[in-house]
Amino acid sequence: MSDSTAKQSHRAARRRAERDDRKQDGPRGVKLGQSGRDQAMEWMKAILWALGVALLIRMFLFQAFRIPSESMRDTLLVHDYLFVNKLTYGPKTPDRLVIPILNKVLLEGIPHLRLPGFREPRQGDIIVFEFPENRNQDYIKRCVAVAGDVVEIKDGLAYVNGDVYESNFADFGGDHSCVPDWRNSGDCPTPHSLRIQGRLGDGSFNRAYGPITVPEGHLFMMGDNRFNSMDSRYWGTLPIELVKGRAEIIYWSYENFFFFPRFDRLLKLIDLPPGRAWLQPMVRIGFVLLVIGMVLYYRRRDRKKLDSQEE
Question: How many domains does the chain have?
């Protein structure tokens, strides 16, 4: 007997066996109904597992956030979408039960635990936290000072422990040896300490503030665009207990209402030190290789399925 004849005989026998099974199982409609319920249960299990895994990742590893305002220009722009790393400072179990979207608090004061992290928040970290005056809102600012530091603003410049810390728009490289008069931004040589010395804005603490000492267990937070930032100058120091995590990477960014991507900001590591600039291209190359690998894997898997069906 040839191979083709043997294959035909095998297929015919398999079809007869399938018909016999259908007869033994009863009416065809009942079988389809049972199969539909089984499929629905499988889908429900898959969805519940996916939701559970997503909640665990969001609670203990990473969480996505969107930048809605210009308080962190030029470091973070409106319509930047970023991931926050919760492992750096240690993830925290929930201490409240809140209905998502509605932001309605059902239960407060739940016993919670802050798991160990790699380190404590430091000066210069960009941190996402719960707004102390409304914990249903998340804010993102730069940590300017930690417990025991003395913060003061004089003539529009921020001082920490008596030293100039940073100027507007996170201009760390400004020439702080000459402090311009706020009415004339051009009376110091470039680079100026402040990019917009003559426009200190309407904020009551843009020109002068403090000095204050940051209490134990608290942080002093300010926006990089601090002439347009509602921060610790207005609502006080931040309890470390409200810290959610450290901003790590911008995964998506677009311009205005046309959703045109800012390609230079896609997969951009946030506030990367100059000595680690080599990490930025490595992240983007790694992402491209990952996508290519996934495409090749699924194409190969689909090809194997087709081959097995043909047999």
Answer: 3
